[in-house]
Amino acid sequence: MKISVPGFLASGISSGIKEKNKKDLGMLFSEQPATAVGVFTANKIKAAPVLVSKEKIKHKNSQAIIVNSGNANACTGNMGLKDARDLSKLTAQELGISEKLVMVSSTGIIGVALPMDKIKTSIPHLVNSLSPMGLNDFAEAIMTTDTIPKIVMKKSMIDSKEVTFCGIAKGSGMIMPRMATLLSFIITDLSVNPDLLDDVFIEAVNNSFNRITIDGETSTNDMVIMMANGRAANSFFPKESSDYQTFKSSLNALFLDLSKLILKDAEGATKTICILVEEAKSNEEAKKIAYQIANSNLVKTAFFGEDPNWGRILSAIGTVDAEIIPERIDIFFDDVIVVENSICTGMESRAKQILMKKEFRVTINLHIGQGTAEVGTTDLTTEYIKINASYSS
Amino acid sequence: MKISVPGFLASGISSGIKEKNKKDLGMLFSEQPATAVGVFTANKIKAAPVLVSKEKIKHKNSQAIIVNSGNANACTGNMGLKDARDLSKLTAQELGISEKLVMVSSTGIIGVALPMDKIKTSIPHLVNSLSPMGLNDFAEAIMTTDTIPKIVMKKSMIDSKEVTFCGIAKGSGMIMPRMATLLSFIITDLSVNPDLLDDVFIEAVNNSFNRITIDGETSTNDMVIMMANGRAANSFFPKESSDYQTFKSSLNALFLDLSKLILKDAEGATKTICILVEEAKSNEEAKKIAYQIANSNLVKTAFFGEDPNWGRILSAIGTVDAEIIPERIDIFFDDVIVVENSICTGMESRAKQILMKKEFRVTINLHIGQGTAEVGTTDLTTEYIKINASYSS
After folding, report:
1. What is the DSSP letter of A127?
2. Interatomic CA distance for residues A41 and B8, integer angstroms
3. Within 10 Å of residue A15's Cβ, how many Cβ atoms?
4. Other CB atoms within 10 A of residue A369 CB
5. Given A74, A311, A380, which is nearest B110 (Cβ)?
6. How far apart are the C-alpha atoms of A260 and A208, rounded to whole Å?
């Protein structure tokens, strides 16, 4: 599939923030101002670009995003804020558009000032490189410890028009998004009412990025921004219309695919695991339990060791402030029941076969109520430790 | 120092639960019934010996404790409960004392039935091995992934009598005690009012075991039991007397020493780190922040990498539901200030020297209020992952 979205240009170049001429500066540009929505990290320590973009996106209108990797511009005080604003201003000047329409985003090491000289010098080249086919370069330019660029495309028919959705994300560590996540940018040529876009967008984020964890860590720089430039020329559609349903399911599918890509590229991970909690007292309690398991170092190292260690799962469940009946818990690895009424079924050897897979599901049934939640996670490996003992994030 | 407490006998033998004739069955015995108090795991999934001993200790009276390692007798259903009760009954018969006076405790793999035949056969030998000098054998018999036995002795003068306190503990993984912790047994010849003992004991546990974390995991089998047999023949002392103060400070010191021993022997750890949060809104908020840092995989891998990565500490602080002023946080590594008002001071190279030590302190000043808390933790290493990917707990 050709990776492009009508009316959008993109680029990614090396500006010298990272070593070895790796791409570290990217731009997304819409030929016309686009309806834009975004969510930002729930971490109380917010990076300068988060503060700046969060303020700008209130107008629900944007035309360009400039993103650098290799430096988070976080914990950099007033200097960092000034740098983020300058970056937005310089980009606007070079593009010949209003500064209000330019978002900024950063990812990388915390606490170091942005090398503004290198970036300033590179902005004209970045703008000159803009191309309808530049999305791959952009996806590469925003990577940090990621080993693969992450792009997902979907096409839908809305109001008899072909509409394209493209989502790009980065992130493989410091991942337990809350409210927002990592960096992700979604562009579409859909024409859409801004408030309706906001609702569908937030719901899609909550069902995807806000349901994964790699290491239980919420970053200072998380942001997801979506731009819809209307180039598909479809008519606005009301809530609950069939076009609305098509849009919603397309966007949810796109977000789910992106969050799965992030789990697959998790730092040091060898496996992707879906933790499904069923029949909890409420969805909220199911979610708390799913996250406790998904973040348990002991459960995750057992996955790495391909050890069907259901005792660690039960132990993790027991630490949660949620209603359980300690004697009535069932645990399945895929379709194999390893624990029934909190007692081992003797199926460990079949369970071990499942744990040798790259992807599997752990289902916990609490037999209490109707609450359900699903959280995606990974195993915890010696490689994760090596990466994070040597990488300054 | 001679490791013994007047009126107490102990033993530790191999019963065949563990491989290679490793010691795995231990007993503590008081020649006369002792005043006894205990705290037990806050995990809702409680092992059978926890359920049985928790019930028995309500009488605040005990004379013997039988402990096995290598098998937790957790998640073993009604069979497990019967096994724990049988163990207590058989021990009482062999000792010729009331069953009510015998506590049971287990640690090791979860979900596997106790090998009762091996244990039953071994009880007579365990009882025959009881000796005033048997505490080292006992300490060794309760180890799992521990690499060193953990015993601390203190002597105090109370009512002009010499009183001995001896604490024994095991535990080096699945350590984030809440209410109780791991396994620990404290014996003393002190004569003490049971309610007063309970108060001082709970406070000492809360200030020591309940302030450490190795991996944020709370076990199903945690218990701390203290027995005071009165052999020192001191008079009862009232609250706030000078004898009370001596007792309280001795017990606190003993518990702190034991919890430090546990951190030093943490699975795979190379360092012990004290996280001190000062000037938080409340002690409770200080504690939440200290634990968030102490349990952060990214902070702990940075410690392992000897990387003064204060950005990860700030990021961890920002995820806590507690009041902070994002621009007013100071961070010290020992006495070196690395972050002042949330900005780097440029002292990284001095900070790196501190991180190369085996023990250091990280102090966070929030400049909000009067709340303070201290939590002990360790680094997170490749060795921790290796141990837990291959060990079935």
Report:
1. H
2. 57
3. 23
4. 15
5. A311
6. 8
Give the span between the Cα atoms of A181 and A175, in whole angstroms. 7
**DSSP code of residue B206:** H
Q: Which residues pair with B380 in a beta bridge?
A: none
Please report the domains of chain A, with CATH numbers, ordered by start residue. Answer: 8-264 (3.60.70.12), 272-390 (3.10.20.340)
Q: Which of residues 111-130 of B touch A (CB under 8 A)?
A: 111-112
Chain B residues in contact with A307 by the CB 8 A cut-off are: 389-390, 392
Q: What is the mean pLDDT of residues B189-209?
A: 81
Note the pLDDT of residue B385.
86
pLDDT in tens, A175-232: 555 434 467 777 888 888 888 888 888 887 777 777 666 666 666 777 777 888 888 8
DSSP three-state, residue B52: helix
Of A217, A338, A113, the residue nearest B292 (C-alpha): A217
Report CA dihedral (A233, A236, A237, A242) to the nearest 10 degrees: 0
Question: Which of B172, B114, B107 lies closest to B378, judged by CA?
Answer: B172
Nearest residue on chain A to B382, alpha-carbon basis: A382
Strand pairing class (A359-365; A272-280)? parallel
As a whole number of angstroms, the distance between CA A22 and CA A120 comes to: 17
Is-contact A229 A8, C-beta < 8 A? yes
List pLDDT tens digits, range A287-297: 999 989 998 88
Q: By CA distance, what is B112's nearest residue in A? A: A344
Nearest residue to A385 via CA among B134, B116, B211, B386:
B386
Per DSSP, A328 falls in state: -
The answer, for B380 touching chain A at a CB cutoff of 8 Å, is yes
Of A35, A145, A164, A181, catalytic: A181
Angle at B195 between CA B192 and CA B198, to 5 degrees: 90
Residue B175: band (very low, low, confident or very high) from pLDDT cuts 50, 70, 90: low
Please, which residues 269-288 of chain B have a Cβ atom closer than 8 Å to chain A? Answer: none
Residue in chain A nearest B392 by alpha carbon: A309
Question: Which candidate, A262, A158, A170, A157, places its Cα nearest to that of A208?
Answer: A262
Interface check B312 vs A, CB under 8 A: yes
pLDDT band (50, 70, 90) for residue B149: confident
- What would the mean pLDDT of A137-155 be, rounded to a whole number? 87
CA angle, A50 as apex, A49 and A56 as ends, to 5°? Answer: 85
Q: According to the model, what pLDDT value does residue B180 have?
A: 40
d(Cα A74, Cα A79) in Å, to the nearest integer? 11
Contact A343 B77 (CB under 8 A): yes
Please say if A181 is a catalytic residue. Answer: yes
pLDDT tier, B251 (very low <50, low <70, confident <90, very high otherwise): confident
φ/ψ region of A25 (left if φ > 0, alpha if ψ in -120 to 50, else beta) reads beta
> If DSSP codes are grouped into helix, strand and coil, which group holds residue B178?
coil
> With an 8 Å Cβ cutoff, are B174 and A46 in contact?
no
Extract the tokens encoding A229. Answer: 């430039």
Positive or negative: CA dihedral B55, B57, B58, B61: positive
Which of A213, A303, A315 would you mutate first to test chain B, the one with the most B CBs within 10 A?
A315
Whether residue A252 is predicted with pLDDT greater than 80 in this model: the reply is yes
pLDDT digits (tens, 9 = 90+) for B69-109: 989 898 888 999 999 999 999 999 999 999 999 999 998 88
